[in-house]
UniProtKB/TrEMBL annotation:
Gene3D superfamilies assigned: Vaccinia Virus protein VP39
Predominant location: secreted
Entry GO terms, CC: extracellular region
Top-level lineage group: Eukaryota
Residues of the Methyltransferase FkbM domain: 67-211
Location of this chain's protein in the cell: Secreted
Transmembrane spans: 15-37
Keywords, ordered alphabetically: Glycoprotein, Membrane, Secreted, Transmembrane, Transmembrane helix
Matching InterPro entries: FkbM_mtfrase, MHC-II_Gamma/Thyroglobulin, SAM-dependent_MTases_sf
Descriptive protein name: Hypp3053 protein
Length: 223
């Protein structure tokens, strides 16, 4: 009986030994090892890792002229021809009379916002503008008093005289979009930019300047 017990124990030991080897082989295949060395990796199908890294250059401040109440592009022409470095400025012109848009066609590095009126709020308003010009149309005592353009603010008498438009001959009326100029400046320029600001909008100046003061927008304006 004792000999049988020893033989049985030895047999069980050999079985356990071979089972251990079998388990080791299976595990080595699963994790990529083969008895003492690491299996080679086929790099033929490996793709390089691509990284989309964008290196941004430092912001370059711009030179900008805001021409509010642009009329017939007289400010654009004068600025380009006489202001030091005027040709290097990006000019934004705002004009409410769509009929004056052709005057701006010759100018490059220029953005025309027309028909758009600058204001202290976004919305729509009635624009009062002069009728189409013709020789003698605006003569008063032999002097041409019709210079183009218009206004959002007119007197009661000018409103009533639809045929003649009153003293300023504002007989052409149409609805235009208005923009909050203070907000527009903050959203479309940076404080690092060099911004020159011209405002000539026939009566809307007070509301615009008050809104700009309240918003702190003059931090964006240099001149």
């Amino acid at each position: 009986m004792q000999g049988t017990f020893v033989a049985t124990t030895a047999k069980k030991g050999r079985i356990a030994f071979f089972l251990g080897i079998a388990v080791g082989i299976v595990l080595s295949q699963l994790i990529g090892f083969q008895f003492g060395y690491v299996s080679s990796i086929n790099t033929a199908n490996c793709q390089p890792i691509r990284t989309n890294i964008t290196v941004r250059s430092p912001y370059q401040p711009r030179k900008i002229l805001l021409d509010c109440g642009a009329n017939v592009a007289s400010t654009v022409q004068l600025f380009r021809e006489t202001y030091p470095g005027g040709k290097d400025f990006l000019i934004h012109s705002f004009e409410l009379d769509h009929r004056l848009a052709p005057y701006f066609a010759p100018y490059s590095n220029h953005v025309l916002h027309c028909p758009i009126a600058v204001s202290e709020k976004d919305g729509n308003m009635t624009a009062y503008t002069e009728a189409t010009w013709y020789p003698g149309r605006g003569l008063k005592n032999g002097v041409d008093m019709q210079w183009g353009g218009g206004s959002l603010f007119v007197s009661g008498r000018e409103k009533m005289r639809k045929g003649t438009g009153g003293q300023r001959l504002f007989s052409y009326r149409h609805t235009v979009r208005t923009i909050d100029l203070s907000k527009w400046i903050q959203q479309n320029t940076k404080q690092e930019d060099y911004v020159i600001f011209k405002l000539d909008v026939e009566g809307a100046e007070f509301g615009i300047l008050k809104k700009m003061l309240n918003d702190g927008t003059f931090k964006w304006v240099d001149k």
